[in-house]
Specification:
The protein has six helices and no strands. By secondary structure, it is mainly α. The chain has one domain: Four Helix Bundle (Hemerythrin (Met), subunit A) (Up-down Bundle), CATH 1.20.120.450. α1 packs antiparallel against α4 and α2 runs parallel beside α4. The relative contact order is 0.21.
Length: about 150
């Protein structure tokens, strides 16, 4: 169930961002905290950090992503060039494949950290939360695109 929800959210995100123009990726707006590129990278980095935290298969995304896409980082803080849209898409697709390779036992197992809002007990619960967050972020990116294209 939660894998279907996640795959719907991830596929929707990938479908929308594949047509984004690279120059809209880094435009700033007074209405949003960060750029489209940051929000896409933040999804990738957060999912990686939370779903692969105790796994040996972890850290399949470059370690520099922590310095670019952590929740406490702003694009003004960036000290090096961020990845291209095509690189982020490639990483999102590979991550989706790795997430889909987890077995049912993993999804039923308890997370080893306290998640916000108290409803997250299993990795399956965590995946539902991440899928919801991904869908919300897609809505934000769509709104950003509309605002940025008017400028």
């Amino acid at each position: 169930m939660s894998l279907k929800q996640f795959n719907l959210a991830r596929t929707s995100l990938l479908t929308f961002i594949q047509d984004l123009d690279e120059d809209i990726m880094d435009k700033k707006s007074e209405f949003f905290d960060n750029t489209v590129r940051w929000y896409i990278g933040n999804i990738l980095y957060t999912d990686e950090k939370l779903l692969f935290v105790s796994q040996k298969k972890s850290q399949k995304v470059p370690k520099e992503y922590a310095e670019l896409f952590s929740s406490n980082v702003k694009v003004e803080d960036w000290k090096f060039e961020p990845p291209s849209l095509s690189k982020l898409m490639e990483d999102l697709i590979q991550q989706q494949e790795r997430i889909n390779n987890y077995d049912e036992l993993f999804w039923k197992s308890n997370v080893k950290f306290k998640a916000p809002h108290g409803y997250i007990e299993t990795h399956g619960d965590l995946l539902i939360m991440l899928a919801q967050r991904e869908a919300e972020t897609l809505g934000l990116i769509k709104a950003m695109k509309q605002v940025l294209e008017v400028k």
